[in-house]
Amino acid sequence: MNFTTFLALMRRDTLVAMRDITSFLVRTLAQPIFLLFIFGNVMTRMSLVTGGFKEILVPGVTALTMLFAGMQAVTLPLVLDLGYTKEIEDRVLSPIGVHFIALEKMVMGTLHSILSGLLVLPLAKVMLPGGVSLNLHQWELTIALAVLIGLVSSALGLTIGSYIRPEKVGLMFSLIVAPIIFFGCTYYPWVALYRIPWMKKLVLINPLVYMAEGLRAAITPSIPHMPLFWILTGLTVSLVLFTWLGLTGFYRRVID
Amino acid sequence: MPAMLEVRNLKKVFSINPGRGARKSGASKTVTAVDGINFTVNEGEVFGLLGPNGAGKTTTIGILTTRITPTEGTGFIAGIDVAREPIRAKRIIAVVPQKMNLDLSLKVRENLTFHAAYFGMAKKTREERADEMLEWLQLKDRANDRIDRLSGGMTQRVMIARALMHDPRILFLDEATVGLDPQSRLLIWEKIKDLNRKGLTIILTTHHMEEADELCQRVAVIDHGKIIALDTPGNLKKMIPGGEVIEIHLASNNDPLLATLNAIPEVQRVEPLDGMVRLYVTPGSKLLTRLVSIVEDHQCELLDVRVSHPTLENVFIFLTGKGLRE
């Protein structure tokens, strides 16, 4: 790989992202703020949920935010890059393998995703009544999971951005994103699904399940969660699958 | 002169994505965009690919610039096989595409400096080179503008400036002046000539015969994915019978006059048209004064005489039986 070119591509994406920092913050934080406020604050104060719900909610919302930040950081620019003007052509013609241009997008998406996680956790601490008790002692596991979550999110973003035509982006959000959120163990722990066995199995195709459960295992380990082995397996399989799909799709879009 | 570009038996077949019904029945359609072409471009040459839209020019450029994989054959740029070693080839080529593809998220100057950075140029060098390019292409006062604020001619110049940032050895210009006003076109022609004087090898595609004539040392006429003629513009024009065209505009036509004109040995063909006679004559036959006196002898009123040379458009019509803009 040509490292200089790779770094220059990252510099370009960082500059463009920094110019658009306000919309990144709004895009990333609006949803978790509303979710934390309604589910974590309002509903707790209404006594509709018990105090322990906050510990279930926070890793779920963090995983969701990280997934969206990573996905959007790749998909949204890619729709422009691969759109009518083929803005990416100049980068495709730079002296680097075409796959590395896609991998660079994934690295940027991962950074966005981790950054969004770092923003949401303190937000949750502040917004929830009585705060939330997070375990930060397993920091090695937390970092490893954050990186994995970021990579899976951006690989998913690469897949969507490479296969979906710009005019279909709206449709994609309702067809792919909504089921991912609601079947993603965001607001409920996976283990509790034992009451609905078919759903407990079905949700395993959703990468968000492993992200949410992974963060539960890392920062709220007292909540019953999926065994770590299966979390890591789920994330790794998703990463391999979506990276492969994304890279293949990207290559097909830029090289005839 | 060593060969800078060698194209060997290049072929590209695209499969057209069939509709849902067709896919079920297993039917698939293919289109041969480039059909086994061969040519060589020398170092320092300006070489033109002339042909109508859809002739296969852009596909050929696409393959030679690594964006399209060939179905058969390949191209060698300075000895590098573009299909096998695209990354090495990309280091020495530059492309100005037919469609605007500037990075809209970056400003004019940044488009240049980032391009140079992708090619690993040091910060100081790329800043200096960007200044030099902006100055040379008269874009200095637009350096910090957004791309969408530029006119078509300026956009084209920014793309040329960007392409040249990494000091390429060969420049591909795909329909570089399409849709530009005459002033912008002339400016770009000047810059192309300038670059060639400095030794840059240039391949350009065009369906504008004047452009090919003005800029190219050799031209390949391409139609339906095949090269149907390849020579200097001068030699291509010599393919037209007669080689020189004289048009005599008259107040009225006169049959005895036509008979007399037909009898002149240097006149290869007489074409009587409304209020005009077109003569295809052997070049250098110095007929003008004789023609004027012949017309006067037949008591015809001479309105105008025009001598013209065949254009590459005439050559194209001669070779394919159709016009370039059809």
What would your notes on this structure say?
The complex is a heterodimer of chains A (256) and B (326). Chain A has ten helices and no strands. Chain A has helices at 3-19, 21-45, 53-81, 89-92, 98-127, 139-163, 169-182, 197-202, 207-219, 228-254. Chain B is α/β, with parallel strands linked by helices and 326 residues long. Chain B has helices at 20-24, 57-64, 86-92, 108-118, 123-136, 152-164, 182-197, 209-215, 233-237, 255-263, 288-297, 312-320; strands spanning 3-16, 29-42, 46-50, 72-77, 80-81, 93-96, 170-174, 201-206, 218-223, 226-231, 244-250, 267-273, 276-281, 302-308.
Identify the notable features of this structure and list them briefly.
heterodimer; A: 256 residues; mainly alpha; 10 helices; 0% strand; globular; B: 326 residues; alpha/beta; Rossmann fold; Alpha-Beta Plaits; 2 domains; six-stranded mixed β-sheet; four-stranded antiparallel β-sheet; 12 helices; 14 strands; 35% helix; elongated
Please provide a brief summary of the model.
The complex is a heterodimer of chains A (about 260) and B (about 325). With about 260 residues, chain A is an all-alpha fold. Chain A contains 10 helices and no strands.
List the helices and strands and how they pair.
The complex is a heterodimer of chains A (256) and B (326).
Chain A: H1 3-19, H2 21-45, H3 53-81, H4 89-92, H5 98-127, H6 139-163, H7 169-182, H8 197-202, H9 207-219, H10 228-254
Helix pairs in contact in A: 1-5, 2-3, 2-5, 3-5, 3-6, 3-9, 5-6, 5-10, 6-9, 6-10, 9-10
Chain B: E1 3-16, H1 20-24, E2 29-42, E3 46-50, H2 57-64, E4 72-77, E5 80-81, H3 86-92, E6 93-96, H4 108-118, H5 123-136, H6 152-164, E7 170-174, H7 182-197, E8 201-206, H8 209-215, E9 218-223, E10 226-231, H9 233-237, E11 244-250, H10 255-263, E12 267-273, E13 276-281, H11 288-297, E14 302-308, H12 312-320
Parallel strand pairs in B: 3-8, 3-9, 6-7, 7-8
Antiparallel strand pairs in B: 1-2, 1-4, 4-5, 9-10, 11-13, 11-14, 12-13
Helix pairs in contact in B: 4-5, 4-6
